[in-house]
Write a structure and sequence with these properties.
By secondary structure, this protein is an alpha+beta fold. It has 4 helices and 4 strands; from the N terminus they run βααββααβ. It has a 4-stranded antiparallel β-sheet with strand order 2-3-1-4.
């Protein structure tokens, strides 16, 4: 069951949109190796606005992710790629539908 998540929003510097998209897409293999991350999405919200949405079974999983490689890389690349520091919001998951037959299972 997933109970908590993160909603992260970043704004690419002018001319850095492709680099931000590639950076976020490139984080997938790292996240796939995190046992406490139940689902992870890199998203494009607008021409220069991007985000990450991920969910975890508990606070320990969320904390591990925040202390992990993707978070460290995000903060390290922030001055180069982003117009503003990333906005990172902790969220509570009220309900979720995850793929069946996966390691995640369906959650409600």
């Amino acid at each position: 069951m997933v109970t908590v998540g993160l909603l992260v929003q970043v704004e690419a510097k002018k001319g850095k949109e492709s680099e931000v998209a590639n950076f976020l897409s490139g984080a997938l293999p790292i996240v796939q190796s995190e046992p406490g991350t139940s689902a992870w999405f890199a998203i494009r919200i607008g021409p220069s606005t991007f985000g990450i949405f991920d969910v975890f079974p508990d606070e320990a999983g969320r904390k591990a992710h925040l202390m992990g490689q993707v978070a460290a890389a995000l903060m390290a690349k922030a001055p180069e790629l982003f117009a503003h520091p990333p906005v990172i919001e902790k969220v509570d998951v009220l309900a979720a539908k995850l793929p069946t037959g996966s390691a995640m299972g369906a959650q409600y």
